[in-house]
Amino acid sequence: MTTSTSTGTGTRASRPRADALRNRERIVTAAREMFVELGADVPFDEVARRAGVGNATLYRHFPDRATLVHEVVLSVLSRTTERALEAATDEADAFEALRRFTHAAADERIGALCPLLSGAFDRDHPELLAERGRLEDAVQTLFARAQEAGRMRTDVAVGDLLVGLSQLTRPLPGSACPNFDRFVHRHLQLFLDGLEAPARSELPGTAATLEDLRREP
Questions:
Q1: For a disulfide at 51, which of 22, 30, 78, 205, Cβ 3.0-4.6 Å?
Q2: Residues in CB range of 202: below 8 A, 6 or more apart
Q3: 184-193 LR contacts (CB < 8 Å, sep 24+)
Q4: In sequence order, what DSSP letters do the residues of 122-181 get, joined into one string?
């Protein structure tokens, strides 16, 4: 009887942890969607409503906006890194792997990170730095493979891809996200065509590197 009670208690004790994890994931997903649609200042009660949880549950996981933004940025970086690793594994053609990743990164809303990163939260948090490093390494690998295979022009660097991806996946001021979304993959495809070798024109300026992107303006 004692063992049965212990087992039952253990089972009951595990459920809140599983429920809490699911709630946390739903909150982060809802916040990511709403930050893209409405900006990072969206009211917490709207995020809770979208996630299907109560305000108390949201605040229990994320006591302030900076904590929630941190988790959303971490989630987007992590999910985008996984898309890069999947593309590298699944695609034999090096440029097709890069193309697949670029479109997948757009679906992960990677462009929404820029306005989030301008907010008041710790951009140098070790978790974020580590995840950003994983993403940069994964994308750099895709980029290098495409160039080594002769499938990408040689006068570009990985920073060019990340800048283009960021700019082309952010809605224009005053445009509604649902209307903007239908153009994203079309314009990304045009951009990717410009990266393919042989180059069809001479680019002005110099290639954008990861170091360029890290420099303060």
A1: 30
A2: 155
A3: 184/106, 185/103, 185/106, 188/102, 188/103, 188/106, 189/103, 191/164, 192/98, 192/99, 192/102
A4: -TT-HHHHHHHHHHHHHHHHHHHHHHHTT-B-SS--HHHHHHHHHHHTSPPTT--HHHHH
How many angstroms separate the CA atoms of 188 and 13, rounded? 48
Q: How far apart are CA 132 and CA 42, in angstroms?
A: 25
Burial of 64 (0-12, 13-18, 19+ CB in 10 A): exposed
The DSSP output letter for 186 is H
Give per-residue pLDDT as tens, 63-110: 999 899 999 989 999 999 999 999 999 999 999 999 999 999 998 888
CA-CA distance, 113 to 199, in Å (whole number)?
30
Residues 6+ apart with CB under 8 A from 27: 47, 48, 51, 53, 57, 58, 61, 62, 68
**For the segment 100-120, what is each residue's pLDDT rounded down to a tens digit?**
999 999 988 887 676 666 666
CB contact burial 176-208 (16+ within 10 A = b; e otherwise) = eeeeeeeebeeebeebbeebeeeeeeeeeeeeb
- The HSE-up count of residue 180 (CA atoms within 13 Å, CB side) is 17
